[in-house]
Amino acid sequence: MNTVVEKIDAARTLSKMFAAEHLGFSRPDGWTLLAEHVDVHKYWLSRELDLNVSWDEAVFSWYETVMVPIKRVVDSWEFRSAFPRQSNGDLYLAVSDHWHYLKERNPAVAPEDAARSFVTHFGHGVARWFSRFLLP
Prior knowledge:
mainly alpha
């Protein structure tokens, strides 16, 4: 995605595709940031496979290998209780950024591990403590 128009189109496409996911963002550029995450995933996937991966293929791969594993943890009551005022989209972006940070130290860290690490470090209340023992 090089132009502003491409970024806006990608953000609109994602917001329509994932309307049923109830992502929602508190920031106006949330969908654009999500589109950038997919674009970065597309870049790395293309490099890894030594192929030109299409946008649609990248979205599918990103959803299955990044979003779903993070979503499994974020959707648990322990995680949600630790972040009662955060939207699902905001939490995804925050966990994803935390995952990037963790991967700099350990490239093998899984997205689920990043979500668990995020809640134990940044969560609030008793749910933060419980999450250490109850999250899958």
